[in-house]
Automatic annotation (TrEMBL):
Residue stretches making up the Major facilitator superfamily (MFS) profile domain: 23-436
Keywords, ordered alphabetically: Membrane, Transmembrane, Transmembrane helix, Transport
Name this protein carries in UniProt: MFS transporter
CDD domains named among the record's database cross-references: MFS_ExuT_GudP_like
Transmembrane segments: 19-36, 56-74, 90-109, 115-139, 151-172, 184-204, 251-273, 293-310, 322-340, 346-365, 372-392, 412-432
Localization per Swiss-Prot or TrEMBL: Cell membrane
Length: 452
């Protein structure tokens, strides 16, 4: 695990390594369960749920996306509560809450109940992801955050690599407890959230000084390094506040950049299983439920590998503009091309490029807000970026489903996805140029220009 660097003293290297081994995998496990629960609807849809509940593509898209309405409404308040009450209590509370709501999907009977439960799931999950990002950022100095967040973010593509076959296996267990396969799948992915949420209450610590698995010297090094960075940031930004985050042009620009990536991410997450299910009609191929789960997982394993090495490059070179722009352009070009190929293998190959592009950019992107925000401003800023970005979580599945019903295919919806990702690339270039103009007043630049 190549985390430490030559500029970090041995005590610091030891501290960062312990955080990577003891803390990050557990928070990543929480994220794994989080992402699996919110995307379980994508696995259920082509495997009996849409037929049993009589859903059209637009109704499925709306039910998938309405999750983000509840999520968005409470995102910022939830992250402010995390700042007030502490990450350990708040993240554990969030996890148990969404586990209980996720469990109720087992007995959903109609589209109205499905929509209501998806909305409540969003309310219950609100604040988890930005809270986890903020929590990990408060444990390590800025030069190590990219690699720490990369290790955390590995949980998202691995959710599909492991979760898609797992969900497919659950769906194949027909009549367990008298439930249809897709209902039993909901049951199987909900219970871990409740169990791990309870464990998190006792396992997590709010700060390095509370971690008994760190030595006194390691605690002192981390605390000193973090306090020094906080003081430098507060000197630049005066007094951290919620208003500082909400009035920052950088925060809003990052929000719109994130929107494009999330639009692509959830268009894939919710509709890839359905697209694969359509291979039978389009290409005359036949796959059973478990095989479809394995095919769904294919793009995400290379994505995890690419994410690791791309983040490693950003950490070693310093984050450059192209570390985010190149993946955005690659995703923008590849995702519309995926549905114009001539075989299932070619389609999955191109979609794999899209998945690699999205996941290469995201962990590097999330190192940016805490470079210029601290304290309650960081909590509000990270939540605001995630809130605006996750508007795409609602709009992507709904627009994709509605345009599919209008056009009769997924080609036009995927062109729209590509357009939003291209917009993210353009905005990232503009942000970097603006930051270069302001650099004389900002000792810690948001990104380093690629020419340097």
């Amino acid at each position: 695990m190549d985390l430490p660097d030559a500029l970090t003293p041995p005590v610091g290297q030891s501290a960062i390594r312990k955080i990577a081994i003891r803390l990050v995998p557990f928070v990543a496990l929480m994220f794994f369960i989080n992402y699996l629960d919110r995307t379980a609807i994508g696995f259920a849809a082509p495997n009996g749920m849409n037929q049993d509940l009589g859903l059209s593509a637009a109704q499925f898209g709306f039910a998938s996306g309405v999750f983000f309405i509840g999520y968005i409404l409470l995102e910022v308040p939830s992250n402010l509560a995390l700042h007030k009450f502490g990450a350990r209590r708040w993240l554990a509370r969030i996890m148990v809450s969404w586990g209980i709501v996720a469990l109720l999907f087992t007995w959903v009977q109609n589209v109205e109940q499905l929509v209501a439960l998806r909305f409540l799931l969003g309310v219950a999950e609100a604040g988890f992801f930005p809270g986890a990002i903020l929590f990990l950022s408060l444990w390590v100095p800025s030069r190590h955050r990219g690699r720490i967040l990369m290790l955390f973010y590995l949980a998202q593509p691995l959710t599909t690599v492991i979760g898609a076959p797992f969900a497919a296996w659950l769906i194949q267990q027909h009549s367990v407890f008298g439930l249809e396969g897709w209902r039993f799948m909901y049951l199987g992915v909900a219970i871990p959230a409740i169990v791990i949420g309870v464990i998190a209450w006792f396992y997590l610590k709010d700060r390095p000084a509370d971690a008994k698995w760190l030595t006194a010297e390691e605690q002192s090094w981390l605390t000193t390094a973090l306090e020094k960075e906080t003081a430098q940031t507060e000197t630049r930004e005066k007094h951290p506040s919620v208003w500082l985050a909400f009035s920052s042009g950088r925060v809003w620009m990052l929000s719109f950049i994130y929107f494009g990536f999330i639009y692509g991410l959830y268009a894939l997450a919710f509709f890839l299983p359905t697209i694969i299910d359509g291979f039978q009609k389009q290409f005359g191929t036949t796959f059973d439920v478990f095989q479809k789960g394995l095919i769904t997982a294919i793009p995400y394993l290379p994505a995890a590998v690419v994410m690791y090495f791309w983040s490693r490059s950003a950490s070693r070179r310093g984050l450059k503009t192209w570390h985010i722009v190149i993946p955005a352009v690659a995703g923008a070009v590849s995702i519309p091309l995926a549905l114009f190929t001539g075989s299932p293998a070619a389609t999955i190959t191109v979609i794999t490029i899209t998945a690699c592009a999205i996941f290469a950019a995201l962990p590097n992107f999330w190192t940016l807000p805490t470079r210029f925000l601290t304290g309650i401003a960081a909590a509000a800023g990270v939540a605001l970026i995630n809130t605006v970005g996750n508007l795409a979580g609602f709009s992507a599945p709904y627009i994709t489903g509605a345009v599919h019903d209008w056009t009769g295919g997924y080609q036009v919806p995927m062109v729209i996805v590509g357009g939003f990702m291209l917009l993210s690339a353009v905005l990232m270039v503009l942000l970097a140029r603006q930051d270069r103009r302001l650099r004389s007043d900002a000792p810690m630049p948001l990104v380093e220009e690629h020419q340097r």
